[in-house]
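Appendix C: a fully annotated inverse folding record. The material below is reproduced so that readers can follow the format used throughout the book. The structure is listed first as tokens, followed by the designed sequence.
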């Protein structure tokens, strides 16, 4: 990672104000934005992902948005490859690569590299799917907690994709997923860390008052519903080739809407379930961020949050040379 040109990273939980801050940075400095968001990659998923508007997308060049059909997955490895290419290309054009988003797994993969863990095993994966169908993903999460409590602690009980992968790694190798993460960290040298810090700056928008963020999440979900979020999900279902277990349809909000349309619970509960799931996502995002000691924290609920972000950007750019 240390060979990459300097890039500025702006992270934070959902509804923390990342888009507004990114556009402010783009107005002050010649840059292009690279999205670090596992939901924004999907086409046709605009309202429920709070995708930047057409005007916002036109104001500054964006990358890694609308690059996948919802039927097709997009992995952290693909993100690292695509992000590295774009960082290099943007810098070569004399602009600042600005990475913005809340998918912390993508940030971590870009910063630390991908772990050398076992490849996918179709037979074991199918067996895990069968077990989950019989017992439910919360039960599978409990099973994971027994063999890999470290990984289980950072996953939601309904995060089927990552629970399945963690259990698959354990059954293939006999070692927990956290073992591979720890091994990767242990072999990183101090020189590599130093180079990595010099080649990037990470600004993190984090609330000092969790209630402030909860209020923003509720306002955003209400706005999505008013903009026709449910109709968006109905249109995706009408395609006929999508299903609830796809990574795209497991995105927060989409999963709850899909289940409501399946009749798993009353539609009147969609708002509360969607807001609760988004709060849980934000909590996990903040936990991930706190594990990144190199970040520069800005209180996103402070009246002068945007000024603080711009000050941090100015400091970061003082220690770089023009690309």
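Designed amino acids, in order:
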């Amino acid at each position: 990672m240390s060979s990459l040109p300097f890039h500025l990273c702006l992270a934070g939980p959902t509804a923390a104000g990342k888009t507004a801050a990114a556009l402010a940075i783009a107005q002050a400095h010649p840059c292009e934005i690279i999205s670090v968001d596992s939901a924004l990659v999907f086409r046709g998923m605009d309202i429920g992902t709070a995708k930047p508007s057409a005007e916002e997308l036109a104001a500054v060049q964006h990358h890694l948005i609308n690059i996948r059909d919802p039927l097709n997955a997009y992995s952290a490895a693909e993100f690292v490859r695509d992000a590295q290419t774009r960082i290099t290309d943007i810098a070569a054009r004399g602009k600042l690569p600005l990475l913005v988003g809340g998918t912390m797994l993508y940030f971590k993969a870009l910063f630390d590299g991908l772990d050398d863990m076992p490849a996918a095993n179709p037979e074991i994966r199918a067996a895990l799917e069968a077990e989950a169908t019989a017992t439910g993903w919360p039960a599978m999460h409990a099973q994971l907690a027994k063999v890999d409590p470290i990984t289980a602690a950072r996953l939601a009980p309904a995060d089927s994709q990552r629970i399945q992968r963690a259990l698959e790694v354990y059954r293939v190798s006999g070692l927990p997923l956290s073992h591979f993460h720890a091994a990767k960290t242990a072999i990183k040298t101090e020189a590599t860390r130093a180079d990595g810090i010099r080649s990037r700056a990470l600004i993190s928008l984090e609330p000092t008052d969790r209630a402030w963020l909860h209020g923003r999440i509720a306002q955003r979900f209400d706005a999505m519903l008013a903009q026709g979020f449910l109709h968006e999900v109905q249109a995706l279902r009408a395609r006929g080739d999508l299903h609830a277990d796809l990574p795209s349809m497991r995105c927060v909000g989409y999963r709850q809407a899909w289940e409501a349309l399946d009749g798993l619970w009353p539609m009147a509960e969609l708002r509360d379930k969607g807001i609760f799931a988004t709060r849980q996502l934000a909590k996990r995002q903040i936990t991930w961020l706190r594990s990144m000691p190199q970040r520069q924290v800005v209180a996103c609920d402070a009246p002068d949050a945007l000024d603080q972000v711009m000050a941090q950007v100015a400091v970061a750019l003082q220690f770089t040379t023009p690309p």
